[in-house]
Amino acid sequence: MKTFKKLLLCLCVAAIAACTFALVGCGESKEPPKDERITYTQENNVFREWTPADFNAMTLHSWEEKRDKVGVAYEFEGSYTEGYQDMVDPTYFDAYLYNDGSVRATNVGGATSSNPLYGYWFNIDEYGDECLTIQWVSIGAEKYTRQSVATKFDGGDYDWQSNVTRDIWGSARTTLIYGRNYKKTTGLEINTDKAKTSYVPGEALNTNDIVVYAVKEDGSKVKIRTARCTFENDFSEPGKDIPVKVIFEKAEGTFNVYVKKVVELKLTTDDVEKEYNLGDKISTTGLKVSAKYDDDSEADIDLENCKITGSATKAGEFDVKVAYGGAEASYKVNVKGIDYTGTAKVGKEVKDVKISRTSASEASVTIDGTTFDCFCAASGAYESGDKNKPTYLVLWGIENETYKGMTPIFEIGANKTLKPVEYEGLKSYHGTDRIYGNEWFQATNYHFYLISENQMVIAMERVDDGNFVFWLCGYELRGTTLTVSSCTSSTDSGGTYWFGVTGDGNPNSFNGVVFYKTFTLNDEDGTAKRK
Prior knowledge:
The chain has 531 residues and is mostly beta strands. 6% of the residues lie in helices and 50% in strands. The protein contains three helices and 40 strands. The strands form seven sheets. Strands 30, 31, 32, 33, 34, 35, 36, 37, 38, 39 and 40 form an eleven-stranded antiparallel beta sheet that branches. Strands 1-2-3-4-5-6-7-8 form an eight-stranded antiparallel beta barrel. Strand 4 and strand 5 form a beta hairpin. The longest helix is centred in the first third of the chain and has 18 residues, at 2-19. The protein is elongated, with a radius of gyration of 36 Å.
């Protein structure tokens, strides 16, 4: 008869845990049993009245201190895995039931942990048997409460059994949980007989087959799921045994793994693009990388694990470098500069000109068979030109005496053809103070070109990489005071972004970046200075 009652009790427990929302225990008509450590009823457990804010105020450090000072009465754990594991992470449940009647649970929801709020108490079920009621409230849903009823369980390492039901995507998920009377952990024993103990640089520690036993204060050993442990390791120095530290509660243990050293990288580049135009993005399509290790083994390496450096920011031949595990290999690519052809205005004369842009901010100019270098900036420089919207190329820093007075700004047409901008009021100014930026990005060394009555070009140097940022802006000129209005930037990659320089205040802020809008111009020496 008693066996039948026990079976019926188990069925009732599952039903109560999955469905009950009211604050009721196993039964409330009888006095709870006396436990040597703790006795609580639903009426005298103060934590059942705590709000989410009360529990959120308790930091992890506070709970760890409580574990040492107040002590833990019981610990529960469990796991739940969806049938479609590729979409939903396994759900783990860990909870400490403290000697003061509070409960803290962790790792509910797999990788996205949450910390539900708990209170617990003892009670007597209708058959007169001792049971344990755990009440929990989900953070973020203060009115959502449930209870789990734990009953005595003879299951080897465990003394209690119950379950926790949660809502996921509108459906109930029930996790079986098992608890034990808590004993302090004094040490760890770690078994790695079936675990992975050889790694390559950059590989993450695999804890799947590591077996951890917690050695308790009474000498007993309890197997601990690795998800409850903390692992500390540093694989940055390959070629030797690396210690891995395992921490559970305050107990520690270690084991060693070997991290292979890469002695050679081999690149296969037969199908890799090696010819580029200035500004192109380097493609690694077709690149294959393999590594030879210090144990003479070889393996193909995923490009995502490699550091690949190289950009088509300067004309000429250069190396694309591939680094992995402390080793490096490279292959060569060739970058062509951008050639513009058209006419230039030199004084009153119009001459044929060829301008070759050799980097983001450098160019060579050829007129009448004479070639000289200068600085440059352009909008839409890596495109053929937009027929519906002008794009521009500006030059400065011309040292050649014959051509210092040439018109410094050109309109770029289709097929990279040039014609000088002709505006009788065309003037250029140069300033060195900070015109644009914030603590992580700044631009100085700016050049103004007034190309019409209300339109100007600004080229300003980025402090971080020395390249020039190009803006097409509106302006208003009153005497020697120039005020910048809305600006548009057409980037080398073809993208366009805009911001307004408005308001009475100076400087103005756009997305946290300060743009100084008011400047004083000096026609005698061609300088500009922000107000």
